[in-house]
Amino acid sequence: MIRTRTDDRVRVVTIDRPERRNALRPEDLRALRRAVTDADAPVAYLRGAGDAFCAGADLDAVAGLADADVEGGDADGPASFAREGQRTAAAIAGADAVVVCGVDGAARGGGVEIALAADVRIATPAATFAEPGVEFGLFGAWGGTVRLPRVMREGDALDFALSGRVLDADEALRTGLVSRVVDDPRAVADAIATGEPDALRAIKRRVRDRRDDATQEDAEVEAFAALVRAHGGEIAASRRE
């Protein structure tokens, strides 16, 4: 179950299955995707209910996929579930809102991948991270193998994914998996939300751009010029303060 509410300039999106450590079924992935992409606030704050952020894919749902006739294109097959997760992660990464992920407690498997898709990852001291699927023959297929080495150094990413070991908040910070360790991640979302929405969107799009450098620089110039044209009066006023 995915719950949402909007507080001022922040949409709070909560993965709310604490009895399953917020594990995600296909329907939860679809609901999470809608909750983030439909956000009408400049910042979306993603969190988990209870004492975990997200345990990843619901293993009961995954176990039921093994017998699916994927060769026949079964919509409930394992490839479909993986693509559902990829679409949700891509939607988070591409959302108009800046997505701040607050990890308090355990992030496992797909929960790590959902966090990787966010723009800013903030941990509490109680946060832990692991990709345990390797222990029973799986790996992160919600875009994790693509995003992990972009966020961490390749050596750290391979060590993390291949070993299945648990990182605490301090090691997650050291490896770049999170950018801060604080007691209240929501406060970071609130602080980011004080920024001008057009500027927040422009920064996110430019930093997320994966095209060649020259194309990115042209897009950067265009975005900067558009912001100056749109906010010239505010810029002039700020110079007089």
Core attributes:
single chain; 241 residues; alpha/beta; 6-stranded mixed sheet; 4-stranded mixed sheet; 11 helices; 10 strands; globular
CATH class designation of the largest domain: Alpha Beta
What percentage of the residues does DSSP assign to strands (E)? 15-25%
Backbone CA Rg: 19 Å
Number of helices: 11
| Major sheet strand order | 1-2-3-5-7-10
Percent helix: 40-55%
Number of strands: 10
CATH architecture heading of the largest domain: Alpha-Beta Complex
Query: Can you summarize the main beta sheet?
Result: 6 strands, mixed
Determine the CATH topology of the largest domain.
Answer: 2-enoyl-CoA Hydratase, Chain A, domain 1
Cα distance, first to last residue? 47 Å
The pLDDT mean sits at 89
Please tell me what the overall shape is: globular
CATH superfamily of the largest domain: 2-enoyl-CoA Hydratase, Chain A, domain 1
| Helix/strand structural class | alpha/beta
How many distinct domains?
2
In sequence order, what are the helices and strands, one letter per element? EEHEEHHEEHEEHHEHEHHHH
User: Which spans have pLDDT < 50 for at least 5 consecutive residues?
Assistant: none
Organism: Halorubrum rutilum
Family: Belongs to the enoyl-CoA hydratase/isomerase family.
Pfam family, one: ECH_1
Protein name: Enoyl-CoA hydratase/isomerase family protein
